Amino acid sequence: MAAITALSIIALSHPIPAISIATGITAVFANMLGGIAPDIDQPTAPMWRNLPVGRIFGKVFGALIGGHRFVSHSILGVIIFGVAWHFFLVLLTPSFPHLNMTIIWWAFMIGFISHLIMDTFTREGVPWLLPIPIKFGLPPTKVFRVVTGGLVERFIIFPALIAVTLYSLYTHQKIILDLLHNHIK
Ligand SMILES: [Zn+2]
User: Fold this and answer.
1) Cα of 73 from ligand 1 centre, angstroms
2) pTM of the model
3) N or C: which terminus of the chain carries fewer CB neighbours within 10 A?
């Protein structure tokens, strides 16, 4: 949800180049993928839970890259995923010449980084500076942070993100209509 919120705020506050509908839809999916990708290092991550042998595979993969909130939850992880995602999109470009890969790259990265920012507000914190093994959190005092999957997350933060997204869409209706009419081809 934070990924979508960040994407809509950034997309609406920047001049957007003309994109195809395919690019727009792919960007939204890339954004959601980016939003869950950092949790690839958690055996309980949604992407593992929903695969048949995912749990076992997730545990093995999680152990390999260092376990819960490790390298994919750091600046180093942002760079690794950013470069890997870039090369993956470069590979796809010949097959999908009509997709604007720059937009799709950014949509994924916005999702990815918004995930790390949200995790920073949780009790566990985020090891932003790996390999320096310090976890950072906001506010610095742990007790005031959000419990992952807890009541505050479910009943305050999640609805608040939806509200912010809807509000920004609502207040930018003109831009959205203009986007649909003139920028989507
Ligand atoms: Zn996470």
Assistant:
1) 7
2) 0.84
3) C
